[in-house]
Design brief:
The chain is mostly beta strands and 120 residues long. It has helices at 28-36, 96-99, and strands at residues 3-8, 11-17, 24-27, 45-52, 58-71, 75-85, 93-94, 104-108, 113-117. The protein has a single domain (3-117), classed as Cathepsin D, subunit A, domain 1. The chain is built from 2 helices and 9 strands, in the order βββαββββαββ.
């Protein structure tokens, strides 16, 4: 797995770089923290969605708007639609909803680095 350093509404986290995930995913723990700090408001809660997890089960999730996601201090994405997992231990996933906003990215497996190119 490749991890990238990300700021979500000002909170620094490491997320799994997941080209197989259509959406960005945070756990309920991060969502609660952001809410308590005023970085996620009632206006940012957009509703519910259903998704199929690896076990094949269908689960209900909350959908939120993350006002700002910054990758590596360079790639700034506003109004990111993300899924909140009710599982406190869920891995944080950086999905294609964000990855597609970069002009391109390269993966250096030897150095374990992901490089993002900005759109001009």
């Amino acid at each position: 797995m490749k991890y990238v350093k990300v700021e979500v509404n000002g909170m620094g986290v490491e997320m799994i770089f997941d080209t197989g995930a259509s959406n960005t995913l945070i756990s309920i723990a991060e969502a609660r923290y952001l809410y308590e700090k005023g970085q996620l408001t009632a206006d940012d809660i957009l509703g519910k969605s259903s998704s199929r997890v690896a076990s094949g089960d269908i689960v209900q999730n909350t959908v939120v708007r993350l006002r700002e996601v910054v990758i590596g201090g360079r790639l700034r994405c506003e109004n990111v639609i993300a899924t909140v997992s009710d599982n406190v231990g869920a891995p944080l996933l950086l999905g294609n909803e964000v990855l597609n906003r970069a002009a391109a990215f390269t993966i250096d497996n030897e150095r374990k680095v992901v490089r993002f190119m900005l759109r001009s």
